[in-house]
Every structure is written in structure tokens, then in C-alpha cells.
Amino acid sequence: MSSVDEISVKDGADFDFIVVGGGTAGSMVACRLAENPRIKVLIVEAGVGNAINIPEIRTPSGAMELRNSQYDWAYKTTLIKRDDYERVEKPNTRGKIIGGSSSVNYFTWAPGS
Questions:
Q1: Which residues contact 25 (CB under 8 A, 6 or more apart)?
Q2: Which coarse location class describes where this protein primarily resides (predicted)?
């Protein structure tokens, strides 16, 4: 099974480690833990597991098309100008997918092996 396969976990299944969040850091932690073949590791991610068949992610600079999609947490950043107290909300695209924000592809496509 490859590292990006989506699986259903049966009731009662046991794991040595459960990593919550399959972003850059969570995936790396799970990868290091899985180097020991006797250890069973589960990654829990809210988003999809495999970006390879998503054209917006495979296309260089396709991240703008991902805003407010199922692959984006749709966070907003609020900027406040102090001169006239103007409040501006800007989108802050964050990846809701295995690989996290590194998978939403700002100008690159470098899938792992």
C-alpha cells in the first residue's frame, strides 16, 4: 500500500501511533515512525489523500483555483490599516489534503515517492 492510499479503518483496529494531521510535519513524523517495520502508524487527515489526479494541484501556479474549494481550509487573514482604520480580509489558502499547504502548489509540483 502506498503512503497516499485512503483506507477505512475497521472498528477495533489498533495502531502503535496515530498522527493527527497529514500536513508537512505530520507526514514527516509518520514517515520516521514507519521506518520501523514492527510499528503500525495511522495518519488522520480531514482532506483527501492523493493529489495526483487533481488538475488544479498538478498545474503549476494552480493554487489560486483552489481557494474556497474542498482542498482549502478557507482561512481569512484580517489586515487593519491604522491611518483610517480600514479592515480588510484576505484569503489565506491552507491545504486540506495529505501534505497540507505544501500540496496546494504555489508554482511547483514535486510529488513524493
A1: 100
A2: secreted
112 in a structural domain: no
CA pair distance 72, 84, nearest whole angstrom: 32
Asked if the structure places residue 77 within a domain, the reply is yes
pLDDT of the residue at 37 = 95
d(CA 58, CA 14): 34
**How many structural domains comprise the chain?**
1
In a domain, 109, yes or no: no
Residue 87 three-state SS: strand
Q: How far apart are CA 57 and CA 106, in angstroms?
A: 9
- pTM more than 0.90: no
* pLDDT higher at 71 or 8: 71
Instruction: Tell me what pLDDT residue 94 has.
Output: 86
Instruction: Report if residue 6 sits inside a domain.
Output: no
